[in-house]
Design goal:
By secondary structure, this protein is α+β, with helices and mostly antiparallel strands. The chain has helices spanning 3-14, 20-32, 34-73, 86-119, 142-149, 315-328, 348-356; strands spanning 127-129, 132-133, 163-171, 175-178, 188-192, 198-207, 212-217, 231-232, 242-250, 252-262, 272-276, 287-290, 294-303, 309-314, 359-365. The strands form 2 sheets. The chain has a 6-stranded antiparallel beta barrel. It has a 6-stranded antiparallel β-barrel with strand order 3-4-7-6-5-15. Helix 2 crosses helix 3 and helix 3 runs antiparallel to helix 4 (86-119). The model is unreliable at 115-124, 136-145 and 147-151 (pLDDT under 50).
Length: 366
Amino acid sequence: MDQIALLDATERYLRGEMNDQEKLMFEELRQTNPEVDQFVVEHLFFMGQLDRYADLKLYRANIYDVHHTLKETGDITEMKPVEQASVIQMWNKYRRTIAVAASIALITTLMIGSMFYFLSPKPTKEIEALRKQVNDLSIKTNTQSAQINAVKDKVDPKTTVSFSGTSFAIDPRGYLLTSAHVVANAAKVYVQNKDGIDYRAKVIYTDKSKDLAVLKIEDEDFKNLGSLPYAFRKSNAELAEPVFTLGFPKNEIVYGEGYLSALTGMKGDTMASQITISANPGNSGGPVLNKNGELIGILNARQTSAEGVVFAIKSKYILETLEELKKIDTGVASLKVPTTSALRGLDRSKQVEKMRECVYMVKVVM
């Protein structure tokens, strides 16, 4: 299907103009073709942005009309501007022109980005795990090499870390969750907090079918985290819902934001969600949260044939895994994930600041 036909079909689908047979065929196409599915989600998001812009323009026009009416009736009077307010005067004079120019620039950028995405050459490998192979990093100095490969004060400094990823707390007593492939075949595991302090950890449970692993910090230097600020969402997230994540694609914590672009993963995998967000090797095991600070999933892979297409195991299956662990290991029977988010209502910088205490780099020694 060429781009014009795809755009026409997408708009008819979103406007509800397809008959039942056409709708069924188009939804099957979305499930089997992730590029088409992402195009539909991005177009829906784009149209939503245009609608919001139109609403804003209407709101501003209404405000202007009310202001003009009140001025005509004498209920309000204009204050004479002072010379120092030249910037404000310029804004008032040209704000409509600036707003239109900005909207045109935004639309042009989105359209060019969409064209670039569909015309880019596609690699043959479809999906890539986001575990980072440390030995493959381009290390410029001996100091950087030491920072990445030496696990401070815990093991022999000559020990080489083979892989790294991300994990996050599921219980303040040192229980962490990561992706199973991050710690696969590990001889030793260490985790590093936001301050660069390393702790010995142990893999206590692995569920390869869900690509999940539970770690336990077993280090005398570790202190209880107190209450965790985020909650675990039991229901599915909403399509186009804004999300953010924290992880370790480099030797410091990195923030990323995007949106939920599909309710299923690669080839219709119902255990995962598709997220449009920037992610790199080292992000595997990172938490995915919505605006209310509710955990909706854990990052584990990305699609190599499309920029920014990442997959995350849904929180529903994380909770199932933890319940299975409790049945097998009575020592963790008291493990309780938080059900109330202390991040709700906070601005993003405050949310991230509270989250940073609970997110760890995973260092794997083979």
